[in-house]
Amino acid sequence: MSANYEDRDTLFNFVVKEGNGVKGLIDSGISCVPQPFVQPLSERIATPNGQTCEAVQPIDISQLDGPCHTEVAKQIVEAAETLGFFQVVNHGVSVELLELLKMSAHEFFEQPPENKAVYLKEVSPSKLVKYGTSFVPEKEKAIEWKDYVSMLYTNDDEALQHWPLQCREVALDFLKSSMAMVKRIVEVLVEDVGVILEEERMNSLMGTKMVNMNYYPTCPSPELTIGVGRHSDMGMLTVLLQDGIGGLYVKVDNGDWLEIPPLNGALVINVGDTLQILSNGKYKSAEHRVRTTNIGSRVSVPIFTAPNPSEKIGPLPEVVERDGVARYKEVLFQDYMNNFFSQPHDGKKSLDFARAD
């Protein structure tokens, strides 16, 4: 007798607790989306209508080191102030490495489920690696249609020892070849608010680094599900590699959702909550979400940069002096992080934790 995946407990045990993931559900032969994955009408993403946003025009990040520095810095600042998302090219990460990343992500998730389940949080041999499904599935009204593996960076040796064999080398290369670009972008953004961060402070604000690989299996009814719900990222900056399928949407001021289209060889950059707090609201952590698809399994590879857990974050004093008001209070990043991971995705609600009373 086949399992009843319409029953939430049965599905939760199979997908989440046993580590079969959404991929295992699809491999079991289902032809319909089980009820626990069906989103409320308010959260569903309409069929793509071709609307894309201005982030389609990539920024040539290499021009920061030439005569066009001022113009390129202005493009970065404007994107961070308005959309919170932009795409970059000539970023220092080779196209060959980007292709290897996508291939290694597929290789990891296409393994037998028991090979991935060894990295479930409760049993993972390393605190650096976690495999799972959705965000906080035990608290969500409807589960997100996504499997993932997250790899926390401490140092090269531990990454090469503990990260999954299928992706450890390419993921580490991706992280290391992206960090100079990330620091350069942060420098541009803080300089525009009249601040020069000392190297020690900069390193503390980006002391937590994590590479994730996300896998969105082919979905029989994409209009009923979401890959990732509405949220903003908690850290400083996120660097994202998309594959060619697409499905990343960002919310704009008028409430519309526009797609960030995949561009071959480009990387997506988005502002996180920490940078919004430091800038006293000048820069916008972008609310975004991910659509599922029935044309193939999609992968994406983000790098999350965030403060050390022991770091206190609040509006930079120079910015408060200029603005005349602090819109956020100072909080310990560990506390902000604990709050972020304790609740299902709900837009930018996580920022309320740091809002000034």
Automatic annotation (TrEMBL):
Cofactor names: L-ascorbate
Gene Ontology BP term (one): coumarin biosynthetic process
GO MF term set: dioxygenase activity; metal ion binding
Domain Fe2OG dioxygenase stretches: 201-307
Signal peptide location: none
Pfam family, one: DIOX_N
Top-level taxon: Eukaryota
PROSITE patterns, A to Z: FE2OG_OXY
Family matches, as InterPro entries: DIOX_N, IPNS-like_FE2OG_OXY, IPNS-like_sf, Oxoglu/Fe-dep_dioxygenase_dom
Alphabetized UniProt keyword annotations: Dioxygenase, Iron, Metal-binding, Oxidoreductase
Similarity remark: Belongs to the iron/ascorbate-dependent oxidoreductase family.
Protein name: Fe2OG dioxygenase domain-containing protein
Organism classification: Eukaryota, Viridiplantae, Streptophyta, Embryophyta, Tracheophyta
